[in-house]
């Protein structure tokens, strides 16, 4: 059980850079609270609690990837963005990371801003941009939804991993001897495989929720203002 | 909207099973981040760094640790029980914290669309039935 820790440990990134990203994360979360409030109704609030709890659970489930001796786990940014939207989704990820750091000793408390920036801000933002784009292009079928979830999850994980590489370039504590590209390479390859797992989990979960309660999938609901307006216009059917 | 709360309870049950039971089948290998930071070091069977040079050597102690550190419960030697129980506690804590905070921050007065009738609004319905909207029941 030695390897269950999964987030940035203390000492990996220096204090000033960790503090800088703590400020970035705080500003982003303040914005998310402000904008997310518009989305948080009586149904989305408990749903978002469930999404956070579900992401906590699935993050514990490290799955093997093709590279020997390396595992991966869900980050959850794309899943949260799909189910509860980008603003509330970012807050869900932040709550999970805070619980993990404060209660489960996973990820240094001083490193929280770095992790929240990577998984709660970068991954969620990238995922949501892709979701908004793909749902417009792809057919509104379970397959279209699955492809959207898969691609958004995969790309968001790889970009979030590059967020860490950027942070390491700014404030990494070990002297890599100019070999940042090496770290970037291992991070990119491992997170490409992790992203495939993330994509499969995200697509399966989102399609399942969409089949049971499509009204609880934010990404589908957000498009609805278009259809009710067009439904009365079709009046001839009735 | 009883079905909504049913969905919520079902989802929570799935999360509890994943964290409480399935978590024991998780891969014990370091994740993508951890293994990338160990690149350049030699590692023994227990995952301890034995030599070489890599970023992970700069790791420092966690500020808090605590009785649930590393997804186990201090004092419970049985790995399965320790991991599973800590997972269950984590799911409940995360749900309570996130759900509670979101519930407090939720949008209330604005935009009372008739579609969003929830159990929490039942007192309003009760009030309305008290008003003489319809002459007789």
UniProtKB/TrEMBL annotation, chain A:
Q: Which UniProt keywords apply?
A: Cell membrane, Membrane, Transmembrane, Transmembrane helix, Transport
Residues spanning the membrane:
12-32, 44-66, 78-103, 109-135, 147-170, 190-210
Gene3D superfamilies referenced in this protein's UniProt entry, alphabetically: 1.10.1760.20
Return the InterPro entries for the record.
CbiM/NikMN
Which domain of life, per UniProt? Answer: Bacteria
Cell compartments where the protein resides: Cell membrane
Topology of the protein relative to the lipid bilayer: Multi-pass membrane protein
Protein's recorded name:
Cobalt/nickel transport system permease protein
Give the organism, scientific name: Micromonospora gifhornensis
UniProtKB/TrEMBL annotation, chain B:
Q: Which residues cross the membrane?
A: 85-105
Q: Where in the cell is it found?
A: Cell membrane
Region entry Disordered: which residue ranges?
110-137
Question: Does the keyword section mention Acetylation?
Answer: no
Q: Which domain of life is it from?
A: Bacteria
- Write down the Pfam families for this protein, in alphabetical order: PDGLE
Annotated ranges, domain PDGLE: 6-107
Q: Which UniProt keywords apply?
A: Cell membrane, Membrane, Transmembrane, Transmembrane helix
| Predominant subcellular localization, coarse grouping | membrane
Name assigned to this protein: Membrane protein
């Amino acid at each position: 059980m030695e390897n269950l820790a999964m987030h940035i440990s203390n000492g990996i990134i220096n204090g000033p850079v960790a503090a800088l990203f703590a400020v970035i994360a705080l500003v982003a979360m303040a914005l998310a609270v402000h904008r997310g409030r518009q989305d948080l109704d009586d149904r989305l609030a408990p749903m978002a609690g469930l999404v956070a709890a579900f992401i906590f659970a699935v993050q514990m489930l490290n799955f093997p990837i093709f590279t020997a001796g390396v595992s991966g786990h869900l980050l959850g940014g794309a899943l949260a963005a799909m189910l509860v939207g980008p603003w509330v989704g970012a807050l869900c990820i932040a709550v999970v990371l805070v619980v993990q750091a404060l209660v489960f000793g996973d990820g240094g408390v001083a490193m929280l801003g770095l992790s929240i920036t990577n998984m709660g801000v970068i991954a969620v933002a990238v995922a949501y941009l892709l979701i908004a784009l793909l749902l417009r292009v792809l057919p509104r079928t379970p397959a279209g939804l699955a492809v959207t979830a898969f691609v958004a999850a995969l790309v968001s994980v790889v970009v979030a991993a590059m967020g860490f590489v950027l942070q390491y370039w700014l404030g990494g504590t070990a002297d890599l001897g100019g070999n940042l590209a090496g770290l970037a390479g291992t991070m990119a390859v491992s997170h490409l495989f992790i992203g495939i797992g993330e994509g499969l989990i995200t697509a399966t979960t989102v399609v399942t929720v969409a089949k049971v309660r499509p009204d609880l999938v934010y990404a589908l609901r957000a498009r609805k203002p278009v259809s009710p307006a067009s439904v009365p216009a079709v009046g001839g059917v009735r | 909207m009883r079905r909504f709360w049913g969905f919520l309870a079902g989802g929570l049950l799935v999360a509890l099973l994943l964290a409480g039971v399935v978590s024991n089948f998780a891969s014990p290998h370091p994740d993508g981040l951890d293994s990338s930071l160990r690149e350049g070091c030699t590692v023994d069977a227990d995952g301890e760094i034995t030599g070489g040079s890599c970023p992970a050597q700069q790791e420092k102690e966690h500020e808090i640790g605590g009785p649930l550190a590393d997804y186990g419960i201090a004092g419970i030697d049985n790995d399965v029980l320790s991991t599973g129980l800590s997972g269950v506690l984590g799911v409940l804590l995360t749900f309570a914290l996130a759900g509670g905070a979101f519930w407090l921050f939720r949008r209330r007065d604005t935009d009372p669309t008739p579609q969003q009738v929830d159990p929490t609004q039942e007192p309003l319905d009760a009030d309305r039935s008290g008003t003489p909207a319809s002459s007789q029941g």
